[in-house]
Design brief:
The chain is mainly α. The chain has two domains: 83 residues, no CATH class; 56 residues. The chain contains four helices and four strands; from the N terminus they run αββαββαα. The strands form two sheets. Strands 1-2 form a two-stranded antiparallel ribbon. Helix 1 packs antiparallel against helix 2 and helix 3 runs antiparallel to helix 4. The chain is flat, with a radius of gyration of 19 Å.
């Protein structure tokens, strides 16, 4: 594979894209931290962010959706910057990075639900297992 020289003006534009995405995601995370309710001067992480709302928007729930959005932004930038051809893994289907992300997120949801069924809260063990599962999906699928 031959090395392809990237012109300096294009190299700099990607730096702007990376810094802009990082800045926007960081600003949203800072907003979530700011919106987290306080009780007696300390953050009440599991208190509702919107009292009386239709969904239990607590900081952990908002952080979960922030992580999903951050992954989607990251994988979009990677797909544009470094296009990928599909590859075959142990499942014998062609997958791209986005496919493997979807498979790992879907499997992680079922792992965490199974953890809740068999062991109950907290889900830290299920999260550790889901991270190991995601690493295996990206390596071998």
């Amino acid at each position: 594979m031959a090395d392809v020289a990237i012109p300096l003006h294009r190299r700099g534009s990607w730096r702007v894209v990376y810094l802009t995405a990082l800045g926007l995601l960081g600003a949203v995370l800072a907003l979530l931290l700011w919106a987290t309710p306080s009780k007696d001067g300390a953050k009440a992480w599991t208190a509702p962010m919107i009292p009386g709302g239709w969904m239990a928007w607590t900081f952990p729930v908002a952080l979960f959706f922030w992580v999903i959005a951050s992954l989607l932004v990251l994988f979009t930038i990677l797909a544009i910057r470094f296009p990928e051809t599909p590859r075959r893994g142990i499942l014998r289907i062609e997958t791209t990075r986005g496919d493997r992300l979807f498979i790992s997120l879907l499997g992680s949801a079922f792992i965490c639900l199974g953890w809740l069924f068999f062991f109950g809260p907290p889900v830290w063990g299920g999260l550790a297992f889901a991270l190991a599962y995601a690493a295996a999906v990206f390596r071998w699928v």
